Amino acid sequence: FAEDAFSLHSRATQFAIPCTWCGVGTTIYVTINTFNGYPVGSDGDLRVLEMLTEALAQVSTELAQNNGVIPTGVFSFVAFNAQLFTANANNHQQTWGVLAGAIMALASFMDSYGEFGYANFQIFDGGNQVGEGSVGPAPAG
User: Fold this and answer.
1) Does position 65 have pLDDT exceeding 70, yes or no?
2) Which pLDDT tens digit goes with each residue over 33-56?
3) What pairing do the DSSP bridges indicate for beta strands 28-37 and 19-22?
4) What value does the mean pLDDT take over residues 129-136?
5) Is 72 left (phi over 0), alpha (psi -120 to 50) or beta?
6) pTM of the model
7) 3-state helix, strand, coil in the chain (%, to 5)
8) What is the pLDDT at residue 12?
9) Given this model, what pLDDT does residue 41 score?
10) How many whole angstroms separate alpha carbon 57 and alpha carbon 63?
11) Separation CA 53–CA 79 (nearest Å)
12) Which is more confidently placed, 79 or 6?
C-alpha cells in the first residue's frame, strides 16, 4: 500500500462538526462526532496520517484473504504513538471491507479538512450503523 494514499491537505476546508462524510462510490460513510486536528505538518498531524495509512494496509491484507466479519467485533491498531479503535455497534457487525471503507472515508474527511488528528466517529453501511470508533493517542504502557 502506497504511503501517499492520502494526499497531504490538498483542499483545506473547515466543516461543521458533527459531520457525515461519505466514501467515494460506496454506501459506507462515517459520522464524525468530535474532531481535534493538528496543525498541518506537525508531528501529531503526520503521526495520525501514517497510522491511518498503515491501519488501512493491515485491513486491506485481511480483506484480500477474507471479507468476513471482524473476529471479536473489535479492531485496534497502534502505530506512531496513535491508535485507531473500532467496535461493532447497534447489534450489527463490521466486516473488513466496511472497515476499509470507513478508514478511507475518515482519512478523506481529514485530508479535506486540512488537518489529521483525533476523532470519535460512527461507521455506517447503508442505513445501518455497524460500528463506532476513535482515533486517539496510543494507550500508555
Assistant:
1) yes
2) 999 998 888 898 999 999 999 999
3) antiparallel
4) 98
5) left
6) 0.90
7) 35, 35, 35
8) 52
9) 84
10) 10
11) 10
12) 79
- My answer on whether omega of the bond before 18 falls inside 30° of 0, hence cis, is yes
Residue 13's SS3 state is coil
- Spatial strand order in the sheet of 128-137: 19-22, 28-37, 117-125, 128-137, 82-88, 74-79
Four-residue CA torsion sign, 133, 111, 116, 39: negative
Residue, of 39 and 123, whose pLDDT is higher: 123
> Which residue is it, cell 466543516?
15
**Residues contacting 59, CB < 8 A, separation 6+:** 75, 96, 99, 100, 103
| Pair 134, 79: CB distance under 8 Å | no
Nine-digit cell string for 71: 473476529
Instruction: Return the beta strands (E) in the chain as ranges.
Output: 19-22, 28-37, 74-79, 82-88, 117-125, 128-137
**C-alpha of 114 from chain center:** 15
Place of cell 478523506: 108
Average pLDDT along the chain: 90
Q: Given a cut of 80, is residue 7 above it in pLDDT?
A: no
